[in-house]
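so my prof wants the structure for this chain in the tokens format not the other one, which i didnt know existed until like an hour ago. anyway here's the sequence
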Amino acid sequence: MYPPPHHQSDEIGKMISVIKHFPLGMLVTAKDGNPFVTHIPFIYNEASKKLVAHIDRNNPQLQTLTENSEVTIVFKGPDTYISPSVYSTSQLPTWNYIIVHITGNIHLINDPEGVKKTMIDMTEFLEGEAQKFTLKKDDPRMDRLINYIQAFEIEITNWEGKFKLSQDKIPQDFENAKEELIKKSRKDVSGFIDAIYMSN
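here's what i got, hopefully its the right format
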């Protein structure tokens, strides 16, 4: 990703944290010069060190996901406009954000039991600590569903973290920008969501 270096992070632990907190990634591929982008959740498998996901078999992007083909996944964390008014020194407006780019190679999962396991693992992770729903391997709906999805793993070959957090500012302004990012991340969006739902 674009420099400067002080906005780059090579701390894999922090990037894994982004993936776990913001698992909806952008799967990016290309074929014959045509880009394909699909937004799907991913889980990071701690044991295998791979990303795991599923895609609808009717999705045209599936034709780009051949064994060992290279893909890029983008994970987007919090972001916000930073007004110069939050700084204690004279600055210009900017936009701060947390982004992770992953590059890796696709490995298709075609074994029905393997596909079921990825679905169970994904559901367990996304349900979180409360676990209000548990997907069972013997759920009869599973046998029908696996015919409509393609499960896959991504063997990661490159990690890129871009954390633009006002690191080039003095400590007080760096802290002020952090607080602004936290505040904006907690902003109530209920009105916006209501409006979107009403238009559909």
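also thought this was worth mentioning. The beta strands are 8-9, 24-31, 34-41, 43-45, 50-56, 70-82, 94-109, 149-164.
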